[in-house]
Write a structure and sequence with these properties.
358 residues; alpha/beta; TIM Barrel; three-stranded antiparallel beta sheet; 45% helix; binds flavin mononucleotide
């Protein structure tokens, strides 16, 4: 006779409640800081992170972040007000530090009572961080290395995001696996949120156990039901494997290309040809170095909008992280969040089982 199977411990409601409270404990610093139920930020995505997606994420217990991108202050004020009309829960606003009207954008956020401002696209200045804090909001910055994390803390930053090169969009050169080991053991003054390549709750749990206060995801939410991204953009996400989300290639070190991770398509292939042709024109004396650099930088102008809004996924920039391979259907935001939480709870119960029974 075969022994009856022991009941699956992950289905035991008492065990789940116990694991959930341990998870809440691990996330407590993050949820306190964000004012949300879960320490899960949805990273801002230009054109994607607008009122509908951001409010859906905050309403589902996560923390949505509006992408300001190149918006002018008046347009940002409108988007913040529209988001506030859709949720009474906290959400953040992501500002790009090189925006020519950064100070005005900060003022718009403060006047609207935005609780958290995320500063992306470089190390922000001390006065900008001060202005945010003196206005009553919290300032969040990106730390691509330990020295920069320490510098941001000296400048008064309230929390950090460490984003690995697995992420979608503009990326640094170092993976989250390495950044987390470099930074998490040494930074205790402020909460640190991990980002890049995260698609499952058990993986997020492993970073919480290393000392992270929470996690930031982008790619999975870009393909959610509430995302306004074009159907063809979402379909491209459903079809793609991790290996399809590649970083843009730089052809010549004299002409730097900021690495952007996205799905390879006709646009990424033409970008290489465009660089080669620009290089040829520079070498033939037809273009100055500055003109050649600008020509390369302008190649992608407007291309994220073309992919996200117009659905041109062949020529546009289909920014996506390597976690794109884990997306198998267009799920509502609340389902994605619940799934991540459930996977973390399952993992905690299994850990405890291993500790009990070996
Ligand atoms: C389509 C897309 C657009 C993005 N745009 C921005 C942006 O405007 N500003 C920013 O700080 N990060 C941007 N990101 C990065 C996300 O905020 C987030 O940090 C990243 O997606 C997390 O990694 P994951 O893609 O592996 O989940 C973008 C990512 C994607 C996929």
């Amino acid at each position: 006779m075969t022994a009856p199977h022991a009941a699956d411990p992950t289905t035991d409601p008492a065990r789940r409640a116990e694991a959930r409270s341990r998870l809440d404990h691990l996330c407590a610093r993050g949820t306190r800081f964000l004012g949300s139920e879960y320490a899960l930020l949805a990273g801002a995505m230009s054109w994607v992170s607008e009122r509908n997606l951001v409010s859906a994420i905050s309403n589902a217990g996560g923390f949505g972040v509006l992408a300001c991108g190149a918006m002018e202050p008046e347009r940002l004020a409108e988007e913040i007000a529209a988001t506030q009309a859709l949720t009474s829960r906290p959400f953040g606003v992501n500002l790009i530090t090189m925006h020519p009207r950064l100070d005005d954008l900060v003022r718009v956020c403060l006047d609207a009572g935005v609780s958290h401002v995320v500063l992306a696209g470089g190390i922000p200045s001390g006065p900008v961080i001060r202005a945010i804090k003196e206005g009553g909001a919290k300032a969040i910055g990106f730390a691509p290395a330990l020295v920069l994390a320490k510098r941001l803390i000296r400048l008064g930053i309230d929390a950090l995001v460490i984003e690995g090169s697995e992420a979608g969009g503009h990326v640094g050169p170092v993976s989250l696996t390495v950044l987390a080991q470099e930074i998490l053991p040494h930074i205790h003054d402020v909460p640190v949120f991990v980002a890049g390549g995260l698609g499952r709750g058990d993986a997020i749990l492993s970073y919480l156990e290393l000392g992270a206060s929470g996690a930031q995801l982008g790619t999975r939410f870009a393909a959610s039901r509430e995302s306004i991204a074009h159907e063809r953009f979402k379909k491209a996400f459903l079809r793609a494997n991790a290996r399809d989300a590649v970083t843009s290639v730089q052809l010549d070190e004299r002409f730097p290309v900021i690495p952007v991770r996205g799905l390879s398509n006709a646009g990424t292939r033409r970008f290489l040809e465009h660089q080669a042709e620009t290089l040829r024109r520079f070498q033939a004396g037809e273009l100055t170095k500055e003109a050649a650099q600008l020509d390369i930088e302008h190649f992608w102008a407007g291309s994220l909008r073309r992919a996200v809004i117009e659905g041109d996924v062949e020529n546009g920039s289909v920014m996506a992280g390597q976690s794109v391979g884990m997306i198998t259907s267009e799920q509502p935001v609340s389902e994605i969040i619940n799934e991540l939480v459930d996977q973390a709870i399952d993992a905690l119960i299994r850990q405890e089982e291993r500790a009990r029974h070996g």
